[in-house]
Design a protein that fits this description.
Helix content of chain A: 25-40%
Distance between the termini of chain A: 27 Å
Largest sheet of chain A: 6 strands, mixed
Low-confidence stretches of chain B: none
Mean pLDDT of chain B: 82
Number of strands of chain B: 4
Number of strands of chain A: 10
Helix content of chain B: over 70%
Distance between the termini of chain B: 22 Å
Mean pLDDT of chain A: 91
Order of helices and strands of chain B: HHEHEHEHEHHHH
Radius of gyration of chain A: 17 Å
Order of helices and strands of chain A: EEEHEEHEHHHEHEHEE
Number of domains of chain B: 2
Strand content of chain A: 25-35%
Radius of gyration of chain B: 31 Å
Number of helices of chain B: 9
Number of helices of chain A: 7
Oligomer: heterodimer
Largest interface: A-B, 21 and 20 residues
Structural class of chain B: alpha+beta
Largest sheet of chain B: 4 strands, antiparallel
Low-confidence stretches of chain A: none
Chain lengths: 233, 292
């Protein structure tokens, strides 16, 4: 077990009320700069595993270390500091529909009390990165699904996170738009941000040939460096 | 928290006040505060009247009829020496008759028809404190030349008892208002929190601190409590001025509290109470949404 990795999971169990076991003895290391697909059927524990990285939940047993800190032992006021180093995107984008594209992205900096100067510098950069600089004043409702996901990605990366956690980010998108989003995530990864992505999209996983961690019934059943969506003979 | 952030969040709180049905909460808080402050004013005034009564408690010691001046002087000196006695004043037969005439007013006409003055001479004994009345009365009755001792201990005791009950009721109302009004404010804030739950979730995910998230809601609660209490204070203050005016015209001898500085303190206490109501209410409604 390599303890110097960006994310270490060792013997992680997670049980929800009603004795539902989402994770059962997961061991996993994710290094800085990795691009990891988490695959597996619905209910296999993918989202639970991802949420442990940003401390959306804590293990019932075992240890999860992010950047060397045990997330279960973080004090309540330290949790926001951890989350400032982690970007999160979801299938449903989670955008504020009453705010413009620019405001949705600047919101992530405002809430961590960044200076106006920093906001003015970083928000256009993030929007350029996702190719939406020209739609800064548009409202989310005026955008297509892929563009809305780009806004969510811009919001997630605007604070230069160490890790980008993506929970089925292409789940609501058509195949072409999904590929555009994957190109964007690859670019972000090439710039040094670790990307951990849960997905059901076989085409994308098979095409990109990145590291694949497969979960089944809460256990890691496969961890391949250049894997495909399914076992290959 | 930076000043810029405080400005930003305060703006959010004020905008939210305009969106949610906060007027209903303000009116309910106001109604609760009017009840509470009315009880407080009654209790404050009765306490004031009570303290005046207690300060005015006097023992009257009647002398044996036709007592020689020497014996009367010795009795006076003996009473003056009793612990708890502030002063002793002699009241002659004529003065006693004059006092009775004043008390009777228009009905005093018959006093002139009396064949002789039937009232005895007496001493008016003032006390240092009202609670020594029993001891002083007992010691005075033992003094040579004293025929009878009278005072009104039961009136004082009853007044103290009534005040105790009144303050108890006021305290209970304060607790009920605190709980009830806090829940009303809490429900209003809950609407705001519910409307903004997605925003709160995103704030948590991008690393906002709890204090950053809580601030606008707490401020909104405090403003609701403050406005409710402020409106109540204005109504009660104006109403009280009217009552004071009325009492001073129908019962000018009634010692009601008119001291502006004391009433000012009462207003400040009400405003603070309202703010606490808002603070508690907003905390109740936001805590569970922070557990993301």
């Amino acid at each position: 077990m390599e303890w110097s990795a960006l994310v270490n999971m060792y013997g992680v169990y997670k049980a929800y009320p009603g004795n539902v076991e989402a994770l059962r003895g997961v061991n996993l290391n994710i290094d800085k700069g990795d691009f990891v697909f988490i695959v597996g059927p619905s209910g296999s524990g993918k989202s639970t595993l991802l949420s442990m990285i940003y401390r959306g939940t804590v293990p019932t047993r075992g240890h999860v270390l992010v950047s060397g800190r045990n997330i279960a032992r973080l004090r309540w006021r330290e949790v926001p500091m951890l989350r400032r180093r982690i970007g999160v995107i979801f299938q449903d984008y989670k955008l504020l529909l009453d705010r413009s594209v620019y405001e949705n992205v600047s919101f992530a900096l405002e809430v961590i009390e960044a200076s106006p100067k920093e906001i003015e510098k970083k928000v256009p950069q993030a929007l350029s990165m996702v190719g939406l600089a020209h739609k800064a004043s548009a409202m989310p409702g005026e955008l297509a699904g892929g563009e809305q996901q780009r806004v969510a990605i811009a919001r997630a990366i605007v604070n230069d996170p160490l890790i980008l956690v993506a929970d089925e980010p292409t789940g609501n998108l058509d195949p072409d738009t999904a590929l555009d989003i994957m190109d964007l995530l690859c670019d972000i990864n090439l710039r040094g941000t670790t990307v951990v992505m849960a997905t059901h999209n076989q085409v994308i996983v098979d095409m990109m040939r990145k590291r694949v961690v497969q979960l089944e019934r809460g256990m890691v059943v496969r961890d391949e460096r250049w894997g495909a969506y399914c076992y290959e003979a | 928290m930076k000043l810029r952030t405080v400005r930003l969040l305060s703006g959010q709180a004020v905008r939210s006040l305009k969106k949610t049905p906060s007027v209903t909460s303000i009116i309910v808080v106001m109604a609760c505060m009017i009840v509470l402050s009315s009880f407080m004013l009654v209790a404050v005034n009765l306490t004031h009247i009570g303290s005046q009564f207690q300060a005015d408690v006097q023992i009257r010691a009647f002398l044996v009829p036709d007592l020689s001046p020497d014996v009367a002087d010795r009795a006076r000196a003996a009473i003056q020496g009793i612990p708890g006695v502030a002063s002793v004043a002699f009241v002659g037969k004529d003065e006693a008759l004059q006092r009775l005439g004043k008390q009777l007013g228009q009905d005093s006409f018959f006093l002139g028809d009396l064949p002789r003055n039937p009232l005895p001479e007496s001493f008016d004994i003032s006390l240092i404190r009202a609670d020594v009345a029993d001891e002083v009365a007992a010691a005075t009755s033992e003094v040579d030349g004293i025929h009878d001792v009278r005072y009104a201990p039961k009136l004082v005791d009853r007044l103290v008892g009534v005040l105790r009950i009144l303050w108890g009721i006021t305290g209970a109302i304060a607790v009920l208002v605190l709980v009830g009004a806090s829940l009303i404010v809490s429900n209003t804030i809950k609407l705001t929190v519910f409307a903004r739950r997605k925003e709160i979730e995103i704030m948590k995910l991008v690393g906002a601190t709890d204090s950053f998230i809580l601030f606008p809601f707490v401020l909104e609660g405090i403003i609701i409590g403050f406005l409710g209490a402020g409106a109540a204070a204005a109504i009660v203050y104006a109403g009280y001025q009217g009552v004071v005016k009325w009492i001073s015209s129908v019962a000018p001898f009634m010692p009601v509290v008119t001291d502006t500085s004391r009433l000012g303190v009462a207003v400040v206490v009400m405003l603070c109470f309202g703010a606490v109501v808002g603070l508690i209410g907003s905390n109740i409604s936001t805590k569970r949404y922070l557990k993301v």
